[in-house]
Amino acid sequence: MSLAPRVEVKVGPYFDILEVAMAEQNIELAETMLSRISPYFHLLDDEHKDYYHGCQYAIEENIVHCFAGDEDAYDEPTEYDEWQSYNSDC
User: Fold this and answer.
1) Are the CB atoms for 52 and 44 separated by under 8 Å?
2) How far is CA 9 from its chain centroid?
3) Alpha carbons 26 and 19: distance in angstroms, whole number
4) Residues contacting 67, CB < 8 A, separation 6+
5) Distance between CA atoms of residues 14 and 68, nearest Å
6) What is the pLDDT of residues 53-70, one digit of tens each?
7) pTM of the complete model
8) Hey, how many other C-beta atoms are within 10 angstroms of the C-beta on 39?
9) Which phi and psi angles does 33 have, rounded to 5°?
10) Which residue intervals of 1-90 are DSSP H helices?
11) Do the Cβ atoms of 68 and 39 come closer than 8 Å?
């Protein structure tokens, strides 16, 4: 889903800034962006509403670190790793 063009113009940049603020764990900026988005909440699609609520919940429950931008946190196991974890008793 995507936002209507006239809504995208108004809140698109706010969501971009909100995403960066959450990744950097900048709670003040994230709260500011949430407050700027809130007047347009009724115009948002489901995806943006879910993200809005997720950010709001993370701030309230002090779990903003879950949004941290560490995208390399998962390393795909290699064949060597699988070979090392092989258990011959299985």
Assistant:
1) yes
2) 20
3) 10
4) 22, 23, 25, 55, 58
5) 18
6) 999 999 999 988 887 765
7) 0.72
8) 10
9) -65, -40
10) 5-23, 27-37, 46-60, 79-84
11) no
